């Protein structure tokens, strides 16, 4: 009599399992490796950041690349994280709005957005902060037109954008001022470090007697 067939060998995987096999990968987010396990391959980066990794800074405003509330950087490029399959970002550097602050201190961009009255309901602001951060990384002195063009993918229903434009101008000016101050300080330091040079003929090499010199 033939042996009973191995139930495991005859089991038919459910259609769902076959079509959507779970996957695991590691995302590098804000300088930290974050493992993602048993995830559906089609999950967006926005979903994974928010729902699996607990990084709720990026917001889900439209899920279709229209509002900019979900903006993050992947390998230094600004992307709408709702449109990026998270698994494709494995091996890349992901930077979210949580990564703008240093040691709990808001970045200059975040501070300026708050100080200039750009933050009303606040929903768009994480994406706006990432866009402004990205803009100023690539263009240290954007014109108002360039700023408006950079912001055209970020929808804000509250603030009228004036505060954001002001914030960009302020941060650009502050950074330019501190770069000038730093370079002046470096120049002053270089002058101070020029070693004293003896006048011609005033210096001498002390030759040891064993080398033929005089004691
Ligand atoms: S949620 Fe991604 S662009 Fe709106
Ligand atoms: S501050 Fe409310 S949507 Fe921009």
UniProtKB/TrEMBL annotation:
<dbReference type="GO" id="GO:0051537">
    <property type="term" value="F:2 iron, 2 sulfur cluster binding"/>
</dbReference>
<dbReference type="GO" id="GO:0046872">
    <property type="term" value="F:metal ion binding"/>
</dbReference>
<keyword id="KW-0001">2Fe-2S</keyword>
<protein>
    <submittedName>
        <fullName>Aldehyde oxidoreductase</fullName>
    </submittedName>
</protein>
<feature type="region of interest" description="Disordered">
    <location>
        <begin position="195"/>
        <end position="215"/>
    </location>
</feature>
<keyword id="KW-0408">Iron</keyword>
<feature type="compositionally biased region" description="Low complexity">
    <location>
        <begin position="1"/>
        <end position="15"/>
    </location>
</feature>
<keyword id="KW-0479">Metal-binding</keyword>
<dbReference type="InterPro" id="IPR006058">
    <property type="entry name" value="2Fe2S_fd_BS"/>
</dbReference>
<dbReference type="GO" id="GO:0016491">
    <property type="term" value="F:oxidoreductase activity"/>
</dbReference>
<dbReference type="Pfam" id="PF00111">
    <property type="entry name" value="Fer2"/>
</dbReference>
<keyword id="KW-0411">Iron-sulfur</keyword>
<dbReference type="InterPro" id="IPR036010">
    <property type="entry name" value="2Fe-2S_ferredoxin-like_sf"/>
</dbReference>
<dbReference type="InterPro" id="IPR036884">
    <property type="entry name" value="2Fe-2S-bd_dom_sf"/>
</dbReference>
<dbReference type="Pfam" id="PF01799">
    <property type="entry name" value="Fer2_2"/>
</dbReference>
<dbReference type="InterPro" id="IPR012675">
    <property type="entry name" value="Beta-grasp_dom_sf"/>
</dbReference>
<feature type="domain" description="2Fe-2S ferredoxin-type">
    <location>
        <begin position="23"/>
        <end position="100"/>
    </location>
</feature>
<dbReference type="InterPro" id="IPR001041">
    <property type="entry name" value="2Fe-2S_ferredoxin-type"/>
</dbReference>
<dbReference type="InterPro" id="IPR002888">
    <property type="entry name" value="2Fe-2S-bd"/>
</dbReference>
<dbReference type="InterPro" id="IPR051452">
    <property type="entry name" value="Diverse_Oxidoreductases"/>
</dbReference>
<feature type="region of interest" description="Disordered">
    <location>
        <begin position="1"/>
        <end position="24"/>
    </location>
</feature>
<keyword id="KW-0560">Oxidoreductase</keyword>
């Amino acid at each position: 009599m033939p042996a009973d067939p191995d139930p495991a060998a005859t089991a038919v995987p459910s259609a769902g399992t076959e079509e959507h096999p779970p996957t695991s990968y590691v995302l590098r987010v804000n300088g930290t490796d974050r493992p993602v396990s048993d995830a559906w391959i089609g999950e967006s980066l926005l979903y994974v950041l928010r729902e699996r990794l607990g990084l709720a800074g990026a917001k889900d405003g439209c899920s279709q690349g229209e509002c900019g509330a979900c903006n993050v950087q992947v390998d230094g490029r600004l992307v709408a994280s709702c449109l990026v399959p998270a698994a494709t970002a494995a091996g890349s550097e992901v930077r979210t709005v949580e990564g703008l602050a240093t040691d709990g201190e808001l970045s200059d961009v975040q501070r300026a957005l708050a100080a200039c009255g750009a933050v009303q309901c606040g929903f768009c602001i994480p994406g706006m902060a990432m866009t402004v951060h990205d803009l100023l990384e690539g263009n240290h002195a954007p014109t108002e037109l360039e700023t408006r063009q950079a912001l055209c993918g970020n929808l804000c229903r509250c603030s009228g954008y004036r505060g954001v434009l002001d914030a960009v101008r302020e941060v650009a000016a502050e950074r330019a001022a501190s770069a000038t101050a730093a370079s002046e300080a470096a120049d002053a330091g270089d002058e101070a470090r020029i070693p004293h040079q003896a006048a011609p003929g005033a210096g001498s090499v002390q030759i040891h007697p064993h080398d033929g010199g005089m004691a």
